[in-house]
Amino acid sequence: MEYDWEHRVNTTSGTVGWRERLLGVFHSAYQPTDPAAFREMMAALPILFDQFTFVDLGSGKGRTLLLASEYPFRRVVGVELLPALHRVAQENLASYKSEAQKCFALEAVCCDATDFSFPAEPMVLYLFNPLPESGLRRVMANLERSLRAHPRAVYVLYHNPVLEHVLSESAAALTKRDGTHQYSIYAFTKDSPRSG
Ligand SMILES: C[S@@+](CC[C@H](N)C(=O)[O-])C[C@H]1O[C@@H](n2cnc3c(N)ncnc32)[C@H](O)[C@@H]1O
Known about the structure:
The chain is of the alpha/beta class.
């Protein structure tokens, strides 16, 4: 609520409609990332932000897209399954104003994260429990194919990593770089085994 009040946006879960709540039971319920936790995770990333694209799979009302725009990312992309949440995200992107904003290339896409084609750019992939295990496995298989076709630096920031074994078992050859009980950071970089 504080974040929404400060920035005149609508990103809380409190105002999510009954239909989206019900769908959340079958997919993954909308819950926005806490701003302080997000900034802590960003501080742990060993990257030059202006060389990376930020992608949030399961971006809901888009709070992380607004938070990510405080960093000089090349661009910021959110992918959300539910049209009603996606529409709110678009409104938030359009109305957001902050003196802290450093990235202005913000985009919200409405599609199933398991069908999303990753941009062939250095990327920070943000996951806050958007998918059940089968869906996360499909996303990791897509990422593996994308890295094979376009080897590049990719960091996966997994917030509340309840299915972390899916990342560590993935053929995408990700290496765990950092983490706390709240998040894990995995990386595919030029030092990774398959990147040559
Ligand atoms: C825990 S919320 C995270 C919201 C946002 N990433 C954040 O951190 O503020 C998970 C989101 O994933 C979305 N979601 C669930 N299944 C999805 C799918 N297959 N593709 C894209 N989004 C999905 C839900 O609708 C929900 O908005």
